Amino acid sequence: MDRFGVKILGCGSAKPTLRHLPSAQVVDFRGYLFLVDCGEGTQRSLLKWQVSQSKIGHIFLSHLHADHCLGLVGLISTLGLGQRQGEIVIHAEPDFERVFGPQFEYFCPELSMEVRFEPHTTAYSTVIFENDKLLVRTIPLRHRVPTTGFIFEEKPRPRHLIVQRAQELGIPVAYFNAIKAGADWEMPGGRVIPNAEITTAPAPPRKYAYISDTIYSEAVLSLISGVDLLYHEATYLDCDRDKAYQRGHSTALQAATIALKAGAKKLVIGHFSSRFHQPESEQMLLDEARSVFPDTVLANEGLDLEL
Predict the structure, then answer these.
(1) Annotated catalytic residue: which of 37, 67, 213, 228?
(2) How far is residue 100's CA from residue 269's CA, in Å, rounded to a whole number?
(3) Is the pLDDT confidence value at 98 over 70?
(4) Rounded to whole angstroms, how far apart are CA atoms 175 and 254?
């Protein structure tokens, strides 16, 4: 099956630590790379983990907090120094262009490529990217500033043709695509061969959801139902639930509850508070999440997750 994976580049929260970098990750869909958030140090992580910057054509930014976007100007500047061609599209809420547009003009005045902002609303879910194989929707979240998550949805594949059976029935090659799309075959005498007799079902489409900074909200459930992989912030332990709410964040237990109620297949938690600066303290977050949703893993820089 064609690759659909996620590489974690940063999974810390706002206050820097020696253990983690701020939020950033790359979604790899069949060789096309999509950058999700761009905290400080993102371009160094791309180099360290040998991610091809030249293949990144779209950048998705969840919100205007420093730990999710301050690496953007440096990355664009570096791409310009490397004489990157083509277009970079930045998907973000409208204020991003007001904030970063002047910085690009000042620090990156003679770019070799076009940088284009594609604003989207944070009030409701909307499709912000689509090609023939993939679409990306926003997930409205509840944080201290306008914030969205993102869901990457593979489009349904065509059915698999049983070539030997098609040849036995004398189906012309020119009609194969119609059969794969679900058409039946009518024999010269009028007998109809049902599609199910000459094709097999494709693998189900895969979905990845990225839930950035947010308080616990079941409003996301209808959008992420049945996802193969869910990334959900888990800044705090549940004993600090009140603090998490005040600061617009979630706990590990709450992230696991969302995964359970959404019917997710796997959960990865991240955006760790700086208080969890040792592996032993992060294990507390993992244990808490696994008490509700056993198939949970901790984010970590360099972690590869395959759907």
Answers:
(1) 67
(2) 29
(3) yes
(4) 51
